[in-house]
TrEMBL record:
Organism: Phaedon cochleariae (Mustard beetle)
Protein name: COX assembly mitochondrial protein
GO CC terms in record: mitochondrion
Domain of life the protein comes from: Eukaryota
Region listing for Disordered, in residue ranges: 1-23
Compartment(s) of residence: Mitochondrion
Annotated keywords: Disulfide bond, Mitochondrion
Predominant location category: mitochondrion
InterPro entries tied to this protein: Cyt_c_biogenesis_Cmc1-like
Family: Belongs to the CMC family.
One Pfam family of this chain: Cmc1
Length: 122
């Protein structure tokens, strides 16, 4: 029997078998998919809220003509999102938030969505 640890041990250790809560390493899928997803969500809700609202209003008011009528709002929204998506400070903030959420999940076994759903039902 070998004393060698499994490559996946850090993903199955911890109090709930969900990984080490203190592990700060990131997998490829986290770097390339999950953190960029978090960046898009935060940019839309926190940084580009007005642009998202303006584009949504234009779409609502123009129906099938939105492709033609909402070009300016769409362009403004894309510019805002791109600005934040390329901002290193914002990227680092999102990475830290993601790691904190992942750590909390690994400690408790409860996802952020589950916590929010429980809080809203009280």
């Amino acid at each position: 029997m070998s004393n060698k640890k499994s490559v996946y041990e850090k993903y199955t250790s911890g109090p709930h078998g969900l990984g080490d809560p203190d592990d700060l390493s990131l997998r490829k899928v986290e770097l390339e998919v999950l953190i960029p997803k978090k960046m898009r969500e935060l940019a839309k809700t926190e940084k580009c809220f007005k642009e998202v609202e303006d584009f949504g209003e234009c779409c609502k008011n123009n129906g099938v003509l939105l492709v033609v009528k909402c070009r300016e709002q769409n362009s403004t929204l894309k510019d805002c999102l791109t600005k934040w998506y390329n901002d290193d400070g914002f990227k680092e903030k999102c990475k830290k938030e993601y790691l904190a959420e992942r750590s909390e999940y690994r400690k408790t076994g409860v996802t952020l969505k589950e916590k929010q759903r429980l809080a809203s039902s009280m």
